[in-house]
Amino acid sequence: PSPATMADIFLGYNEPDIRGGCMGDLFGECLEPCDREAIEKDDCPIAKLHAKRHPYKKANKKGQCNCWKESQATGAGFWPVEGCASPQPLPTLFKDE
């Protein structure tokens, strides 16, 4: 095996070198999935894929939203990966300590 093998895994994803985002009415606002705290406090706005952009919705103060229920992410970088310190592992995956 070569260290380049990791590239094969990420090439299957869309835009592995950038942060993901949530599509729909929270596009550009929602930059990561809600953490446990936001979910427990009911501070996890639900992104709607086919909703109109106005009235304009906002993600929570941490830039989080529920992108799994009624929407989808733009790329692999949106979702957490087990073993990575950041809730949004890309593009700094290999800088994790």
* N-to-C CA distance: 23 Å
How many extended strands? 2
Bin the helical content: 10-25%
- Unreliable spans are none
The helix-strand sequence is: HEHE
Strand arrangement in the largest pleated sheet: 1-2
- Proportion of strand residues: under 5%
Computed CA radius of gyration, to the nearest angstrom: 14 Å
**What structural class do you assign from the helix and strand content?**
little secondary structure
**Largest sheet geometry:** 2 strands, parallel
Number of continuous helical runs: 2
Give the CA-based shape.
Answer: globular
Question: How would you sum up this structure, described in words?
Answer:
With 97 residues, the protein is largely without helices or strands. Helices cover 12% and strands 4% of the residues. It has 2 helices and 2 strands; from the N terminus they run αβαβ. It has a two-stranded parallel sheet with strand order 1-2. The longest helix has 7 residues, at 5-11. The chain is globular. The model has no long low-confidence stretch (mean pLDDT 77).
List its salient traits.
97 residues; two-stranded parallel ribbon; 12% helix; 2 strands
Topology:
Elements (H helix, E strand, L loop, with lengths): L4 H7 L20 E2 L2 H5 L23 E2 L32
Parallel strand pairs: 1-2
Question: Concise description?
Answer:
The protein has 2 helices and 2 strands, in the order αβαβ. It has helices at residues 5-11, 36-40, and strands spanning 32-33, 64-65.
